[in-house]
């Protein structure tokens, strides 16, 4: 087989596994939307759909990892191609963890409904935060498909906004609990949900960092925004 044919086949395999990652991303996005709907409407059926999808998400993560291992073993890629495969693997793991967070939200919503305290929860702030986190994940997947470092940088900055929203929400919950101890149980439920939503934003941020790693070869995890911007010059 000629070098050209080998290269063409390798490109086809890369495109195939990348498409699988985008398919997984779409599945996880649907989980988030269902989880947010379950929270907004206190809908047990929607929560159950999120939980059922988790099995498919886990199975797809394993399938993608097998494909990646096979490609690496057979093709022995170097430089950017190897960075791409590593980043795909890490992105897949982050998407699976987003599914885990959606699953946590769905299970907590079911628990709240079963406790009979559902209507007492002021969940509007949480729904807004969940929509922000879901939108950030969508942007991260779009940027990953295009390997768009400018979009990745914007995502990193937007995640800081979600973190600030989370911190403000926590302070609000602490105030509620101090003013009225009867709200402690409901407030802790809300805190659990808020943390799951905040982690979804964190995973979107991780995907954005992988994009920079693929394109620039720079590991920008745990670095300042100034250092990240410098790496993109």
Question: Characteristics of this structure?
Answer:
233 residues; mainly alpha
Report on the structure:
The protein is globular. The protein has 233 residues and is mainly alpha-helical. The protein has helices at residues 3-41, 44-75, 79-115, 124-146, 149-179, 184-216, 225-231. It is 87% helix and 0% strand. The longest helix is centred in the N-terminal third of the chain and has 39 residues, at 3-41.
Short description:
By secondary structure, the chain is an all-alpha fold.
- CATH fold group: Methane Monooxygenase Hydroxylase, Chain G, domain 1
Biggest beta sheet summary: none
CATH superfamily: Phosphate transport system protein phou homolog 2, domain 2
* Overall pLDDT score: 87
Topology of this protein?
Layout: H1 3-41, H2 44-75, H3 79-115, H4 124-146, H5 149-179, H6 184-216, H7 225-231
Helix pairs in contact: 1-2, 1-3, 1-4, 2-3, 3-6, 4-5, 4-6, 5-6
């Amino acid at each position: 087989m000629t070098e050209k044919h080998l290269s063409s086949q390798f490109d086809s395999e890369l495109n195939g596994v990348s498409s699988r990652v985008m398919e997984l991303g779409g599945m996880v996005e649907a989980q988030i939307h269902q989880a947010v709907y379950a929270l907004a409407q206190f809908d047990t059926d929607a929560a159950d759909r999120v939980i059922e999808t988790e099995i498919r998400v886990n199975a797809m993560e394993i399938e993608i990892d097998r494909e990646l291992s096979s490609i690496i073993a057979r093709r022995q890629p170097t430089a950017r191609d190897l960075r791409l495969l590593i980043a795909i693997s890490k992105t897949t793991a982050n998407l699976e963890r987003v599914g885990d967070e959606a699953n946590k939200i769905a299970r907590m919503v079911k628990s709240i409904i079963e406790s009979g305290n559902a209507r007492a929860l002021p969940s509007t702030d949480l729904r807004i935060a969940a929509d922000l986190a879901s939108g950030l994940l969508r942007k991260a997947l779009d940027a990953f498909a295009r390997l768009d470092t400018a979009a990745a940088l914007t995502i990193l900055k937007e995640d800081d906004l979600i973190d600030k929203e989370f911190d403000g929400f926590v302070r609000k919950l602490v105030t509620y609990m101090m003013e009225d101890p009867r709200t402690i149980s409901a407030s802790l439920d809300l805190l659990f949900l808020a943390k799951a939503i905040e982690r979804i934003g964190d995973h979107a941020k991780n995907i954005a960092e992988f994009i920079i790693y693929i394109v620039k070869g720079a590991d920008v995890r745990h670095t300042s925004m100034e250092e990240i911007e410098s790496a993109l010059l």
